[in-house]
Amino acid sequence: MDDNSYWRKNLWILLFGTFLTGVAFSEVIPFQPLYISQLGSFDKNALSIWSGIIYAIPFLVVIFTSTMWGRFADRHGRRRMVLQTSLGSAITIFLMAFCTNVWQLFFLKALQGFFDGVIPNSIALVATGTPRKKTGYALSLLSTGYTSGFLVGPIFGGFLVRLFSIRISFMLTGLLLFSFFALTLLFVKESFQPDPAKLKEKKQSTIKIIKSFSNPRFITWILIISISLQIMNNSINPLITLYVKELMGSSGDLSLVSGLVAALPGIGMVMTSPLFGRFSDKHGSNRVLTIGFLLAILFLFPQGFAPSVLFFGIFRFLTGISNAALFPSVQTLLAKGTPDNSTGMAFSLNQGAQAIGICIGSILGSIVSSIWDYDMVFYVSALVVLITFILVKWKVPELRNSYEFK
Questions:
Q1: Is 205 helix (H, G, I), strand (E, B) or coil?
Q2: How many angstroms separate the CA atoms of 114 and 96, rounded?
Q3: What pTM value is reported for the model?
Q4: pLDDT at residue 405, as a whole number
Q5: Is the pLDDT of residue 207 over 70?
């Protein structure tokens, strides 16, 4: 495949689609408790419990369905998977506008998790359809799509809710996702030839699937890194507003300031991901991963003793820069370390690992902050990253700076 082939068109359409997916999954999070309160009569404790359940259920479903979708993608193609999951997500989110009780919303959020395959399959499609020398750049650019989507989502959702209503925001988001389905159907191409051996494969456990890769130890460590990085981010993210409130005291506009601070890591990542991608293509993804680990550790610790919101915001922005080095590097290493006919499964396993990390991280952050205080969450998160970095440097030769994938 040469540089003038269809991979560039695929990249830009899938960039748009992953952006919309990020928006769709994040836009309602700040207003979800309000919507739940409209679906029944709940006291404060019941509303908190339902808000937590509704937030967690899509990620729990992803843990159990990611391998199924990965197996399907390797048998039938990543483009087909992007089509199925984008259409399913569009319909599911559109229907959330018509909920009349919390159980209907619970079911649709679970269904949203079931169709949560747009991003990993878009990544797999770009990874397998892009020239190897451009893979780092393409995956880094693609990461800005869903990262900026998650960043813009709450802002976009707030705009729609203020202009219309929560229900209308679900409808419009569903229609936007349907537009991505239509663009993929009309313009995205994939040179996919099904592997007869894959078509005959029977359902296997996750452990057997990992063992079937040519380098299962390497894949396992990549999944461990993904879990660790999600623990790092999701132990902190649910507590940002509370920590900002503590730093501000009783002065200032808490919602405005906390929203801006929460957005800063995404801004940092969007600004620097392409730069790290180009560096990765020249010097190796393993080197960029090392840089990302060191920056994450360096930037996380000071956040625990932040003397002001400004200091905290600066280091949240810097954390986004470390994320720009870490997350695309993991994806690029997974793509380069996996045969093309198994890339869909590899990225779906990675999606499942990320869901596990999200669940562990949110629980860990709550426990640590309740036993000690918010500052301890940053120290624990940095410690998780440090331990992971030491282990992978010690145990995984493919992730040492001297190693290069062929």
A1: coil
A2: 15
A3: 0.66
A4: 46
A5: no
CA 85 vs CA 17, 18, 88, 108, 117: distances in Å: 11, 12, 5, 14, 6
Task: Give the tens place of pLDDT for each residue, 109-131.
Answer: 999 888 887 877 887 788 777 77
Candidates 69, 71, 114, 62; CA nearest to 93 is 114
Q: Is 151 within 8 Å of 263 (Cβ atoms)? A: yes
User: Cβ contacts of residue 251 below 8 Å, gap of 6+?
Assistant: none
Cα–Cα distance, 116 to 105 (Å, whole number):
16
Q: What is the CB neighbour count within 10 angstroms for residue 53?
A: 14
User: Could you give phi then psi for residue 219, rounded to 5 degrees?
Assistant: -60, -40
pLDDT for 15 beyond 70? yes
Dist. CA 317–CA 300, nearest whole Å: 11
Query: Would you put residue 215 in left (φ > 0), alpha (ψ -120 to 50) or beta?
Result: beta
Mean predicted confidence (pLDDT) in 291-317 = 89
Q: Report d(CA 130, CA 11) in Å as an integer.
A: 9
Task: Measure the CA–CA gap between 58 and 112, rounded to whole angstroms.
Answer: 6
- pLDDT at residue 402, rounded to an integer: 46
Q: Provide the residue type at 108 as one letter.
A: L
For residue 8, what are its two tokens?
A: 């560039």
How many contiguous H segments (helices) and E segments (strands) does the chain have?
17, 0
Structure tokens at 176: 């936007």
Q: Let me know: does 113 contact 62? Beta carbons within 8 Å.
A: yes
**What type of residue is 298?**
L
Can you give the pLDDT at residue 33?
66
> Are 302 and 314 spatial neighbours (Cβ–Cβ below 8 Å)?
no
**Residue of 300, 329, 364 lying closest to 226 (CA atoms):** 329
Q: Residue 310's CB: how many other CB atoms inside 10 A?
A: 10
